[in-house]
């Protein structure tokens, strides 16, 4: 009897074209789009080198201009013309291209979109105008110029202090300026700082992951959240599963309820094949992510366990909703789409700052957000070598699974209904 | 098959409320084994609610339901094993073929694969779906779909079958097939509870019937009993010229005749059921050497009785 | 207007679903909006949660702590390994600095043996940024150490601290800031591009669904038989779809303005953004109706909205900034009207107010208008074809 039920519930599920389309094709499409969209991170520095920030420098003060261009020389090159592809001078260090000019010339260059910003070499330095300068690039430019300013200010302040206090050790300062070694140190730091802004996802690709094992990037958080979303996506399968065996929801539900099969038996018969196939499918997506070259860590077994539990919690959350509430089909579909979206949003899939905000304002939500738990579990596996915190996530998922299972059975045990 | 008097379904003082609305109002009913029992009632009279309550799919507020002498509960699986349900709307899986659907539902009752296979094939034969076994329901016409719906409910040869308006919106061919099938099921020993809007179906099929309205059983009995219970008159019309006044007076004086009108050779008489009747009137004419040119008589139908009782027209619930 | 009213009635019948979806989307917009407004400073990409445990409690260490916390969110933690680790994993802490008891003394005497403990878990970016920040600070102090021959006199510390403050104080002037111009239009541009995601999802889930219910052959046939001309029916259906979308858009726009200020209505850039977003609304509604004619499955409309919404949002730069996106895919996404509207938002974000090229924005609006016209026209053609086929 149970075998008979299993056979037909599997058939009913797999022969449904909409199920196949939305539960199996969509996640693949989504992951592919997600990967392609963020694929630029594979080598962001190279991308950045292809498109350095172009500056027009107005030399209102020749000394200031010389100092600035000398400093700029460490990070880029003079001349704003496009380089031929074969040129080998372009390297990771080319963050800027600049041209010294006067005010009119700079305006014209900006007008012609030959440069993206006009910088006036003065004290203090000024960004007079900018055009087509993205938020990230404007942030970089500002940070760079601030570093330059701090070097200038340090030089001046210490120089002044030396002169005022007539210190006895002038050999440590060369004409009230920082020595070359110190400048180089600061320059190296500035370079690192600039790169840090851009290289924030290099470690998601396996070939570069070794050096950054204990840290993760915001982009990796996106991928954790994305995989967690896919693992939790079968929520809608859980919701629709129950409609088939609940008398007050569908015609077949009514018919099935009139048969001599217990609700629990029927529930397991429809649940098990769907659970198995969705677990396999979630793992297939994980495999696919690995094939795409995204390294989510080497704890494969733990990741598999986590994803299976995630998918189980999704289906059981769906069955609990289906068993407890008698919504119409449209609303059910809406909930089964909206809930994973809300959970994934809270886990940082659309905005990576969200987990922090949630942790700050509604910390309890993180504890009951299954996508957040899966996502965090992946993160723990990646960063915590002890498994202690990963095990906590597993435990949280098991609690959710337990609660949802009890709620499902509780809802199902209502064998007769107030209305049909 | 004549109905024996063993009770198949006993409903006692059943009450079902939807908040303020009383859907079933202290309803009692007995359905005997082996009979085809008709449930007649206008839309919203409580027919489907009654069936769902009998099957324990709906919670009811008061009363008791017994099937084959046992109390019916949601977990009375041994009783459910003997019941077949054919819902009003065709309720099958779109994803399964005709064969798959029948096999699936039959398999919920019959464990043995060989036995089940034989039963499924029998149900297919019974409903005339032989040429469509590999079709998906979406490819079937309305009539064929209803036949599939029927096949899914009866394939396991239940002792008690609930047929909820199985012939709504089907073509005459499919309807006849279904009606014949229902009769055959009775012949095979099943008790059938049949709800419908079609009076002729009830008159043809049902051994007994109940008329329901507002959750109440208004009347229960055979078609003839119900018609005879009605206060409606038989209308007799004769074309006869030169009616003597004393005969007209004699007819007027007859207490069985409620109405008499004679104009231009047309005599219209309304006589109470069981009273003088057409034969009595013709006998009177013969005695007085009167020969009517034409005679017609119209007895009240179940539909007239239904209208009289419920005050509502029966319409297809589509 | 029977068809128009019926359309609204269908939406009303599914109002539970519609309200739920609209509320979720409003919540998303509100949270993102509030966060964007909270870090209005366009040059700050991320505000980190930082904890500094100061064991020295000296003037020097206090200043160092103040410097580290500048522009970041301070988190109080005890010096307990487990509690700190929990904070890291709760995502309530990004970076931790533990200043040892003899911090300044060690630093002044031998910077190479400096025992400054730092820890970060969340991401590499924060770690590198903070390491550089610390190094910059210590480097400046290093200059003073060299200046005073590895022995900074106690009485000089206060003076140096104020000098270091001066050095570290941001001094680069940005033209628009100098002119005291409101930057709220940039925040507005960010939020308004988020609205696009919401509109796509709601477009399919609410409009698409209701439209497909109306296109059910039985309902359609009944209306046509009742003497309602197909042309008139189509017109009313389209009008109802656009009206509902417009109302939803208006609601979302109102929220965006609530977060960024109604003054935006007087800024030309914002006005252009509103026009652009409105035209995008028309184009997206056209796209929704067009897809509903190609794939007329009402039960799939929510799924479809989810898929299309997420795909478009990730490829056009709504969720992740375009600097980080695959440029080829970004170009491919230009087949959607959203690309052009988001381009306008980016244009406003990337330019000073007086450098905004309204011709460029108008061109993008025009492209969306063309797209809207094409989608609507194609939808009409499809309807005509289906009518001829009798389906």
In a nutshell, what does this entry contain?
Chain B is α/β, with parallel strands linked by helices and 318 residues long.
Model description:
The complex is a heterotrimer of chains A (420), B (318) and C (391). Chain A is mainly alpha-helical and 420 residues long. Chain A has helices at 2-14, 17-38, 44-50, 62-73, 103-111, 135-165, 180-198, 218-232, 235-243, 251-257, 263-291, 300-324, 329-346, 354-361, 363-368, 370-383, 388-412; strands spanning 53-58, 76-78, 96-101, 117-120, 126-130. Chain B is of the alpha/beta class. Chain B has helices spanning 47-54, 77-80, 98-107, 113-127, 142-154, 172-187, 199-205, 223-229, 245-253, 277-287, 302-310; strands at residues 7-18, 21-32, 36-40, 62-67, 70-71, 83-86, 160-164, 191-195, 208-213, 216-221, 233-239, 257-263, 266-272, 294-298. In chain B, strand 7 (160-164), helix 6 and strand 8 (191-195) form a beta-alpha-beta unit. Chain C has helices spanning 2-13, 15-38, 59-69, 81-89, 103-109, 124-147, 157-168, 175-178, 184-214, 217-225, 230-260, 268-294, 301-316, 327-332, 337-350, 358-389, and strands at 49-54, 73-74, 95-99, 117-120, 173-174. Chain C is mostly helical and 391 residues long. The chains are: A mainly alpha (420), B alpha/beta (318), C mainly alpha (391). Chains in contact: A-B, A-C. The interface between A and C is large, with 104 and 89 residues.
């Amino acid at each position: 009897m149970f075998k008979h039920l299993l056979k037909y519930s599997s058939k009913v599920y797999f022969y449904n074209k909409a199920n196949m389309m939305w539960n199996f094709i969509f996640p693949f499409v989504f992951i592919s789009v997600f990967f392609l969209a963020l694929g630029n991170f594979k080598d962001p520095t190279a991308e950045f080198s292809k498109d350095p920030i172009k500056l027009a420098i107005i030399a209102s003060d020749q000394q200031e201009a010389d100092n600035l261009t000398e400093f700029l020389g460490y990070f880029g090159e003079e001349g704003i013309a496009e380089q031929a592809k074969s040129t080998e001078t372009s390297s990771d260090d080319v963050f800027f291209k600049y041209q010294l000019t006067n005010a009119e010339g700079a305006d014209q260059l900006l007008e012609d979109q030959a440069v993206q910003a006009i910088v006036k070499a003065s004290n203090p330095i000024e960004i007079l105008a900018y055009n087509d300068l993205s938020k990230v690039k404007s942030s970089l430019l500002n940070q760079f110029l601030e570093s330059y300013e701090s070097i200038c200010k340090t030089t001046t302040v210490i120089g002044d202090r030396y002169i005022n206090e007539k210190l006895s050790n002038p050999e440590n300062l060369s004409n009230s300026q920082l020595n070359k070694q110190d400048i180089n140190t600061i320059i190296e730091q500035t370079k690192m700082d600039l790169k840090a802004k851009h290289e924030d996802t290099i470690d998601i690709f396996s070939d570069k992951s070794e050096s950054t094992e204990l840290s993760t990037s915001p982009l990796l958080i996106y991928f954790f959240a994305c995989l967690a979303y896919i693992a939790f996506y079968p929520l809608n399968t859980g919701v629709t599963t129950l409609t088939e065996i609940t008398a007050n929801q569908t015609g077949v539900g009514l018919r099935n309820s009139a048969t001599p099969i217990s609700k629990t038996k029927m529930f397991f018969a429809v649940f098990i094949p769907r659970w198995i196939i969705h677990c396999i499918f979630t793992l297939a997506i994980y495999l696919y992510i690995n094939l795409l070259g995204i390294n989510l860590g080497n704890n494969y077994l733990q990741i598999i366990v986590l994803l299976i539990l995630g998918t189980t919690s999704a289906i059981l959350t769906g069955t609990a909703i289906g068993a407890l509430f008698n919504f119409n089909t449209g609303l059910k579909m809406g909930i089964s789409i909206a809930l994973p979206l809300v959970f994934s949003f809270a886990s940082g899939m659309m905005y990576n700052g969200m987990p922090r905000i949630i942790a700050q304002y509604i910390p309890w939500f993180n504890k009951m957000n299954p996508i957040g738990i899966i996502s965090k579990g992946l993160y723990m596996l990646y960063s915590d070598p002890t498994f202690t915190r990963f095990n906590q996530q597993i435990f949280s998922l098991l609690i959710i699974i337990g609660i949802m299972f009890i709620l499902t059975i509780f809802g199902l045990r209502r064998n007769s209904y107030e209305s049909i | 098959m004549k109905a024996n008097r063993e009770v198949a379904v006993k409903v006692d003082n059943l009450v079902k409320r939807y908040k303020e609305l009383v859907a079933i109002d202290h309803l009692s009913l007995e359905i005997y084994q082996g009979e085809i029992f008709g449930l007649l009632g206008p839309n919203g009279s409580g027919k489907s609610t009654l069936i769902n309550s009998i099957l324990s799919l709906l919670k009811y507020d008061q009363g008791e339901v017994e099937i084959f002498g046992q109390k019916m509960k949601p977990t009375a699986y041994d009783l459910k094993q003997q019941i077949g349900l054919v819902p009003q709307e065709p309720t099958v899986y779109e994803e399964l073929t005709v064969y798959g659907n029948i096999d699936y539902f039959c398999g919920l009752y019959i464990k043995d694969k060989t036995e089940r296979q034989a039963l499924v094939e029998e149900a297919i034969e019974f409903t005339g779906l032989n040429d469509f076994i590999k079709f998906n329901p979406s490819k079937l016409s309305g009539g064929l779909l209803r036949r599939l719906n029927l096949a899914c409910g009866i394939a396991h040869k239940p002792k008690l079958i609930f047929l909820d308006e199985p012939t709504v919106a089907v073509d005459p061919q499919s309807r006849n097939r279904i009606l014949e099938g229902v009769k055959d099921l009775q012949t095979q020993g099943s008790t059938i509870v049949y709800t419908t809007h079609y009076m002729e179906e009830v008159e043809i099929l049902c051994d007994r019937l109940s008329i329901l309205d507002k959750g109440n059983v208004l009347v229960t009995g055979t078609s003839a009993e119900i018609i005879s219970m009605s206060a409606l008159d038989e209308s007799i019309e004769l074309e006869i010229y030169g009616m003597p006044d004393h005969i007209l007076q004699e007819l007027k004086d007859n207490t069985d005749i409620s109405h008499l009108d004679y104009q231009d050779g047309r005599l219209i008489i309304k006589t109470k059921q069981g009273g003088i009747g057409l034969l009595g009137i013709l006998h009177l004419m013969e005695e007085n050497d009167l020969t009517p040119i034409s005679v017609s008589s119209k007895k009240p139908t179940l539909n007239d009785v239904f209208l009289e009782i419920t005050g509502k027209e029966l319409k297809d619930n589509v | 207007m029977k068809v128009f009213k019926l359309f609204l009635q269908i939406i009303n019948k599914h109002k539970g679903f519609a309200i739920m979806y609209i509320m979720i989307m409003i919540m998303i917009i509100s949270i993102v909006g509030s966060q964007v407004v909270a870090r209005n400073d366009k040059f700050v990409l991320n505000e980190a949660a930082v904890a500094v445990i100061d064991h020295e409690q000296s003037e020097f260490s206090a200043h160092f702590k103040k410097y580290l916390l500048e522009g970041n969110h301070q988190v109080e933690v005890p010096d307990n390994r487990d509690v700190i680790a929990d904070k890291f994993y709760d995502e309530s802490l990004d970076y931790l600095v533990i200043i040892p008891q003899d911090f300044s003394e060690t630093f002044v005497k031998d910077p190479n043996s400096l025992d400054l403990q730092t820890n970060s878990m969340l991401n590499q970016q924060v770690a590198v940024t903070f390491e550089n920040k610390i190094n910059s600070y210590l480097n400046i102090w290093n200059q003073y150490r060299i200046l005073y021959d590895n022995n900074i006199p106690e009485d000089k510390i206060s003076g140096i601290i104020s000098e270091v403050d001066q050095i570290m104080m941001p001094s680069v002037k940005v033209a628009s800031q100098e002119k005291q111009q409101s930057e709220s239009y940039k925040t507005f541009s960010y939020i308004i591009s988020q609205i696009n995601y919401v509109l796509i999802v709601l477009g399919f889930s609410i409009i698409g669904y209701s439209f497909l219910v109306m296109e059910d052959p039985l309902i359609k046939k009944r209306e046509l038989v009742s003497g309602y001309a197909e042309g008139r029916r189509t017109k009313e259906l389209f009008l109802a779809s656009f009206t509902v979308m417009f109302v939803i858009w208006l609601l979302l726009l109102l929220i965006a303005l609530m977060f960024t200020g109604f003054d935006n209505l007087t800024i030309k850039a914002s006005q252009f953004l509103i026009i652009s977003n409105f035209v995008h609304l028309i184009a997206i509604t056209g796209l929704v109706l067009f897809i509903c004619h190609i794939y007329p499955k009402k039960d799939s409309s929510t799924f479809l909205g989810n898929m299309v919404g997420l795909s478009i949002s990730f490829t056009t730069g709504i969720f992740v900034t375009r600097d980080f996106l695959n440029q080829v895919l970004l170009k491919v996404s230009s087949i959607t009207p959203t690309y052009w509207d988001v381009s306008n938002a980016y244009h406003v974000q990337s330019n000073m107010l007086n450098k905004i090229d309204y011709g460029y924005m108008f061109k993008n609006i025009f492209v969306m208008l063309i797209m809207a016209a094409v989608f609507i026209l194609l939808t009409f053609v499809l309807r005509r074809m289906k009518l001829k086929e009798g389906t």
